[in-house]
Amino acid sequence: MIRRTAQDTLERLAASFPVVTITGPRQSGKTTLCRMTFPDLPYVSLEAPDRRAYAREDPRGFLRSVAGGAILDEVQRAPELTSYLQGVVDEDPTPGRFILTGSRNFSVIEAISQSLAGRTGLLELLPFELEELQRFPDTAPDLFQALLWGGYPALFDRRPDREDWLGSYVTTYVERDVRQILNVGNLLAFQAFLGLSAGRCGQLLNLSGLGADAGVDAKTARAWLSVLEAGYITWRLPPWSGNVNKRLVKTPKLYFSDTGVLCHLLGIRSAEQLRVHPLRGQVFENWVLVELRKRVLNAGRRPVHFFYRDRKGLEVDLVARDGRGWLAVEIKSGETIGRDFFRGLDGLDAVPGFPELRRALVFGGDQRQERSRTLVVPWRETAMLLDPHGV
After folding, report:
1. H or E segment at 229?
2. Mean pLDDT throughout 53-75?
3. Which residue has the higher pLDDT, 12 or 190?
4. Helix spans in 92-161 (H)
5. Sheet hosting strand 305-309, strand order edge to edge
6. What is the pLDDT of residue 245?
7. Residue among 391, 356, 363 nearest 379 (CA)
8. In terms of Cα–Cα distance, which of 196, 204, 198, 197 is closest to 313?
9. Does CATH place domain 297-385 in 1.25.40?
10. How many CB atoms sit inside 10 A of residue 201's CB?
11. N or C: which terminus of the chain carries fewer CB neighbours within 10 A?
12. Are 55 and 46 in contact (CB under 8 A)?
């Protein structure tokens, strides 16, 4: 198993907090990371019915059985445990004593924010970023293979059939997690909603339209989207909210946390099919944005990421703040750079009051270039654009 980029962050947090909480989608490698980083800590999975029952029915006795510390996996299965854990770590705040993992964002964060505020460090772990994939022997994906496969560790550790694994992952998520998070009466309708959401990747989020296409009202669509976000399937990129232009679009964009899952939901089964697919540009945009998101999250920071769009049609795919200031990024999947690639970045010069920023273009080619004030970066070097420290 390769060393994860986030391991340094996990070790840093464990040296400062008595509890560290790691969240992220199922199968993103949370358990493996914890067990590699803390091989001497006992490991307890709360997915096991007997362990879960013990933790829920006798939390004091359960915590007494792991008084020296432990890795508690899938803690959202016994969320009330965190209330009792608060007293335990207050009595003995030894750093790195308990490592908690959870694959359901909202419920885990709600539990720890109520009970462990100030006592736990937080780390969000998404599937492999490109740099991590390149640490595997004989793994040097080209652009469309990288987009098609995404980053879930099991696809690279065990090398299963891609479609079999992703199909099982999505089905398991829908049939298991959805029922646990929200009482969805019609799973077929929810599956259709999931596929329709994939088709709107990179677009402004229109819940009424999305719900209507799925045959549900906007209220149901909003609730179902919250389920996808809670399970780390989708996320929203907010619009720039700086007070530089009163005619800004105020609606977020919808993206997926893994382009392998996205391609599966879109019915894309091969790199050749993706190369000519009408949503190729959106899938590439999604991949770049998630790579930059992983870069920040792996450092234990919160992304300060937006897109810019005004009602005159001026748009830039990403406006981000990092340790070096503000950065504007335009994303194009083409391998040949055209003058029109820079239209959005150039348009920012005419926006009054916009902060001074660096400019970059990520494209589907292989050669880094300098174009006037814009750094042109090949897709393989996406991560180098951001310095997450100091965010």
Report:
1. helix 218-230
2. 95
3. 12
4. 105-115, 130-133, 143-149, 153-157
5. 305-309, 315-322, 325-332, 357-363, 374-378, 369-371
6. 53
7. 363
8. 204
9. no
10. 20
11. N
12. yes
The pair of three-digit structure tokens given for residue 372, joined into one six-digit string: 């006037």
SS3 for 307-323, per residue? EEEECCCCEEEEEEEEC
**Residue-level pLDDT at 247:** 66
CATH architecture of 7-124: 3-Layer(aba) Sandwich (3.40)
Residue 240 one-letter amino acid: W
The 10s digit of each residue's pLDDT in 219-241 is 999 989 988 998 899 999 999 97
Amino acid at 181: I
Which segments of the chain belong to CATH 3.40.50.300?
7-124
Type of residue numbered 62: F
As beta bridge partners, residue 122 has 21
Angle between helices 81-91 and 105-115 (to 10 degrees): 40
One-letter amino acid of 4: R
Given a cut of 90, whether residue 153 has pLDDT beyond it is yes
Q: Which residues contact 58 (CB under 8 A, 6 or more apart)?
A: none
β strands within the chain, DSSP E:
19-23, 43-45, 70-73, 98-102, 120-124, 234-237, 253-256, 305-309, 315-322, 325-332, 357-363, 369-371, 374-378
**Which among 172, 165, 152, 162 has a CA at the least distance from the CA of 258?**
152
Using alpha carbons only, what angle is made at residue 334 by residues 329 and 339, rounded to the nearest 5 degrees? 65
pLDDT, averaged across the chain: 91
Q: How far, in Å, are 128, 309, 323, 348 from residue 251 at the CA level?
A: 29, 10, 27, 19
CA distance 88 to 305: 37
The CATH 3.40.1350 domain(s) of the chain lie at 297-385
* Overall pTM surpassing 0.90 (yes/no): yes
Take residue 99 and report the two structure tokens written for it: 């490592």
